[in-house]
Amino acid sequence: MNKRILKQFALFFSFLLVFVNLSFIQPQISSAETLDQAVTIKAIDGDGKNVIDTKAVEINDGDTAWDVLQHVADEIDYDEFDYGIMINGINGINSDWDTYQNFWSFIVNGNSASVGTSAYEVKHGDNILFWLTDDMDANITVTVSAMDGEGNPIIHEESVNVTQNSTAYDAIVQATKKQDVPFDVAVDSTFFTFINNVGDVELAENQWWEFLIDDQSSQVGVLSHQVQPGEHIQLRVQSFNDGSEEEDEDPDNEENDEDENDEKIDEETNENDNNDEKNNEEKPTPEKETPSKKLINQVSKEVDFLANHVVANDLATAFGDEWWVWGLATSGNSVPNSYIKSIEQVVQENEGEFGNVFDLEKVIIALSSSGVDVTNVSGVHLLDKLAEHSGLENPLINAAIFALIAANSGQYEFNEEKENELVQLILESELDGGGWAFFGSKPSADITGMALIALANYKDQPEVKAAIDRAVTYLSNEQASNGGYYDEWNGGYTSETVSQVITGLVAVGVEPTSEPFTKEEGKNLVEHLLEFKTADGLYSHVLGDDESDSFSATPQAFLALSTYKNFVDGEVPPKPIPTEPKEEKPNKNGKVDDTDKTKTPKEENGEEKPPTKKEETDKEKTDNKGDKLPKTATDVFNMFVIGLLVLVVGFVFFMLQRKWKQE
C-alpha cells in the first residue's frame, strides 16, 4: 500500500516539475499523414509573395486543377466561358490586364499548362503553381542528373527549361519525362513531396535519395528549393550504417573500412592528447579534440534534416516558436520574416511589457540569433525592458540563467549592475562539489548545462572559471555508462538533459565527444543524443520511447546538434550589432543621468509649455512622492503559488513518511 502511494506521489511530483519547466517551453505539435493520391499547390503574386502557402491536397480520379484550387482558396474571382474558366483573382489578389498586362498563369511541374484549369486532370505527384505575372516567356535553364549508389547514371545530365519560381522537384519531373525514367514519389499532408525512387534502382532499407545543388547537400527538400539559372540539380543514392554486424565485418566494404580507420586515428589522437587527464580523471580537459569523421557527417545530416523539417512545417514563423527559431538560426538558415513580423506586432501591442520574464528572454535570444537588433524592435529597447523586469528582482535560477544568455546574445550593452547581480546569483547558487539545481541540494545535469551557457562569457573571471571547471568535472563524473544522465523525476534518461549538456560544454569550449565524456559502453554525449532519434527522424523525450516529441525534445536536440556542428567546423554565428547605439549609457545604478531633462520645457518667449496628454497621463500614474507606480503585470504571484504548492506537497509527504515508519 505504501509503495503504491509513493508511486502516485512520484507521478504527481514529476508532473508538477514538468509544469514548472513549461514556463520556458511552448508546444508546437503537428500531425503528418501520407496520402494515397495527392498533389501540391501554391499561389504567388507578382512579387513572389505567397497568396496560398504550399498545401497537399488529396485527389480522386477525374479531379481537375480547378477542383484543387477551389479546395485551398478562400476566394476566387473568375469568368466562365465556353472554352473554360479564366481566373481573375485569388484571395483578393486580382490581375489587371488593361493597366499592368498581368494575368494568373497556370503552371504544372514547372511548365505552363497547355489547357485551362478546368480541363487539366491532375495526377498523383503534380506540383501546381498559380503565378500572377506579366511575362509569358519567363523561363530559366537548369541541369538535372541522378546516380545510384555505385555511381551509375540513372538520369544522364539533362538541361531542362522551367518557368521562374519553379522548384527543384519541377526540374526533376521534366528531366525524367525527357529521358523516360520512372519516377515514384509520396505526398505527405505535412511534409509534402518525397522521392521514393528514380528509375528501377533497388534501394536497401538503409538507403535513400539525397538531394544536392551543385555538389552541395541541400538543407531543404526538393519542393522547397526554388531553382536558379544554371544550377545543377542532383540526386544520389546514399546509405547510412544500420549497425548490423555483417556490415561491420565485411572486408569488402571500403566505406566502413575508412570509417574504422578514421575512428582508430581519432582514438589514438584522443589518447595522446589526454595523457594528463588520465592521471587526473576528475579534471576533464577543456581542449577541443577531433571527433570521428563518421560522427561529424551524421550530425551534419541530422541538422540538415531538422532544418528542412522546420521550414517545411512552418515551425519558426510566429511568437511562441522561439526554440525552433533559435535552432534554425544556429544551423545557418535564415529565419522566416513572418516570425520577426509577429514579434514586432506583439511588441507594438504590449509596448515591450512582457508579463512573463521567460517570454521576454526567449524573444530576445531568438531575435538576436536571427540577426535582429533587439535594442530597437518597433521602437522598443527590449534589453532595457529585461533589466527592469520584476521577474529579475529575486529570480529563479533558470530565469537568471536565460537573462544572461539573452544579454550576451548580441553585441549589446546591458545594465552593468543587473548583469553583475545575475552572475553573482548563479555563482552563489552553486552546490557543493560543483553544478546547479532548480531546487534541492543535488545538482541537475540539465540546469548545470544551462548555467555553463550563461557563464561562458565571463570565464575570464577567476571565480567564474573555477565554477565552470567544477561543473565540467561534475558532468563528467555524473555521466552514466551509456553516455547519458539518469533523473528519476524527469522519467529516466532524457534527451533534453543531454542536449543542454552538449550546448553548455560547447559554450565553454569543451568537446562533448572527448575522453572524459566517453564512458564504458563507448558512447559519448553526441552519440547518446542520436540514440533518441525515432522512426520519423525526430527525437523522443525518454530513451527507448518510439514516439517523437516536438514539444521540447526535438527543438532542443536541433539546437544542440547545430551548436555542436558549428563548434566542430570552427564557426561562430555573428552576433547582431545595434544599428542605433544609445548615446547615453547607464551609470553604475543602471540609470541614465537625465538631470537636464527634468527642467520644465519653455516656449521661445520664456513661458512654460502646456503639458501634453502623454505628460498628463504619466503624471496621473505617479504617487504623491512623484515616483512612478510599479508595474503589476508580473509572474511573481504565479511563481509564489507554485512554490507554495511544492512546499505543501513536500510537507504532506514528510508527514506520511513519519506515519508509515511508526506503523
From TrEMBL:
<dbReference type="Pfam" id="PF13243">
    <property type="entry name" value="SQHop_cyclase_C"/>
</dbReference>
<dbReference type="InterPro" id="IPR008930">
    <property type="entry name" value="Terpenoid_cyclase/PrenylTrfase"/>
</dbReference>
<feature type="region of interest" description="Disordered">
    <location>
        <begin position="240"/>
        <end position="293"/>
    </location>
</feature>
<feature type="domain" description="Squalene cyclase C-terminal">
    <location>
        <begin position="441"/>
        <end position="520"/>
    </location>
</feature>
<dbReference type="Pfam" id="PF14478">
    <property type="entry name" value="DUF4430"/>
</dbReference>
<dbReference type="GO" id="GO:0015889">
    <property type="term" value="P:cobalamin transport"/>
</dbReference>
<dbReference type="GO" id="GO:0005615">
    <property type="term" value="C:extracellular space"/>
</dbReference>
<feature type="compositionally biased region" description="Acidic residues">
    <location>
        <begin position="243"/>
        <end position="274"/>
    </location>
</feature>
<keyword id="KW-0812">Transmembrane</keyword>
<feature type="transmembrane region" description="Helical">
    <location>
        <begin position="636"/>
        <end position="656"/>
    </location>
</feature>
<feature type="compositionally biased region" description="Basic and acidic residues">
    <location>
        <begin position="275"/>
        <end position="292"/>
    </location>
</feature>
<dbReference type="InterPro" id="IPR051588">
    <property type="entry name" value="Cobalamin_Transport"/>
</dbReference>
<feature type="region of interest" description="Disordered">
    <location>
        <begin position="570"/>
        <end position="630"/>
    </location>
</feature>
<feature type="domain" description="Transcobalamin-like C-terminal">
    <location>
        <begin position="62"/>
        <end position="133"/>
    </location>
</feature>
<keyword id="KW-0472">Membrane</keyword>
<keyword id="KW-1133">Transmembrane helix</keyword>
<feature type="compositionally biased region" description="Basic and acidic residues">
    <location>
        <begin position="580"/>
        <end position="630"/>
    </location>
</feature>
<feature type="domain" description="Transcobalamin-like C-terminal">
    <location>
        <begin position="166"/>
        <end position="238"/>
    </location>
</feature>
<dbReference type="InterPro" id="IPR032696">
    <property type="entry name" value="SQ_cyclase_C"/>
</dbReference>
<protein>
    <submittedName>
        <fullName>Uncharacterized protein DUF4430</fullName>
    </submittedName>
</protein>
<dbReference type="GO" id="GO:0031419">
    <property type="term" value="F:cobalamin binding"/>
</dbReference>
<dbReference type="InterPro" id="IPR027954">
    <property type="entry name" value="Transcobalamin-like_C"/>
</dbReference>
